[in-house]
Amino acid sequence: MPAAKVKTRQLKTKRVLIAKVGLDGHDRGIKVVAKSLRDAGIEVIYLGLHNTPEEVVTAAVQEDVDAIGLSILSAAHLTLFKKVLQLLKKAGVENIPVFGGGIIPDEDVAQLKNLGVRQVFTPGTSLGEIVNFVKGIKKATT
To answer: What is the pTM of this model?
Structure first.
C-alpha cells in the first residue's frame, strides 16, 4: 500500500462495526452504545439484529474497520465470539480487535479474553468507559 494511502487512513476517524450476532433480539443496549460512540466522534457501522459471524467478518473487511463490537445476550457468547475470531483469522484480518458485551457470566469473561476478545463489558459498565476503550483501541500489526 502506498505511504500516502496509509497516512490518509491513519488520519481518518476511527471506524467501528457494531453488531448483534445470533438469534438475540434485544437491541436497546447496543443502540445506546452505538449512539454514544457516534456522539464521541467515532464512525459506527451498525449491522442490526440476527447477523451470522460470517456476515460480521465480511462487513468488517469490506468497511475496513478498526474494531468489531458484538452484543450478545443469548448465552451463546463463547460460541459466537470464537467463531468470529476464527473467521477473522481465516480471512487474514485477525489484527482487527474484537470487543463486546452483554449478559456474560464473570467466569466466562476470562475465557473470552483467552480466546482473543480484547475487552468484555458487562451490565453496569459506563458508556464513558466503553467510549474511552474504543478511542484507545488499535489494530495489531500483522
So the answer is: 0.89
